[in-house]
Amino acid sequence: MAGRDFTLRATPAAVAAIDRLRGRARKSYVTFEVELRKRGCGVAGYRLLGAEDGGYSEFCCKRLVDDWRVIATFEPGVAIVVAVGRHDSHTFYVELSKTLAIGASGQGRKEKPACCGEDGWPSVGLAPAVA
Amino acid sequence: MSSGAAPTQLRRRAALARLEAEELADAVSELRTASLSQPEVERALERVEALSARVQKALDLPGGLSVAQAAERLEVSEPTIRKWLAEGLLERVEGHKPVEVTQRSVIEVERVLGTVRESYPARRWSEALAAFLHDRDLLGQEWAREGVEQLRQGELIER
Known about the structure:
The structure holds 2 protein chains of 2 kinds. Chain A is α+β, with helices and mostly antiparallel strands. Helices cover 28% and strands 25% of the residues of chain A. Chain A has a 5-stranded mixed beta sheet. The radius of gyration of chain A is 15 Å and the shape is globular. By secondary structure, chain B is mainly α. A two-stranded antiparallel ribbon of chain B has the order 1-2. In chain B, 21% of the residues are buried. At the A-B interface, strand 1, helix 1, strand 3, strand 4 and strand 5 of A face helix 4, helix 5, helix 6, helix 7 and strand 3 of B.
């Protein structure tokens, strides 16, 4: 976004979680938030698939450090931090490979759809897609 | 017989369902006609919906798909179907032995697989399915659900 930062908002739950962050997780989040204001979806990780049908959801996920995750979404000119919490993806994939016979998933996912998408979503018209 | 219906009764229901299916094929063929006006399309869609309901009623038997049938439909192995049943990804018909899988759960898994394959850039469907399940699990975490709910309610704080 040239010349103007994104407005940044957060849910009360995310604010509370951010306040509880300590050490490396806190440092990582602070850096992320600064970048999020400047570059929006370009630094917000990858697009999550929808829980209902597997299509693209309106949410992106950014990994901080260890198993800390930030879920964000966007409106024109606005970045919204929806939630901050822990999710052990590695263990999830290992368990998945055992319990659901999805052998290929044991090592985690290799490819992730970019948060911005090809056309700059979710900040269409305001910021170009950042690789 | 596990379904509890007599063979003659099953044959009659199957014959009725075939009749409805034939009519359904006609209705779909009609829908493919490019020159239909909007009201004609609406009428054809209503006919398809009514036929679909009648087919479902004709086939309203308690039996589900066999594990082999489900495996063939979803293009996975039978052991995979059994694991998916054990984990709740597929639903079994209660009280039926040998194990039967509900048609609805097969359709739902098939739909998810289809959508995920389109939206997730993985060559292997198993990676796409794993990604879907991972993201569903992530968005299902209590901290994530709370945040999404607050977002839906418009509860936002300026940073």
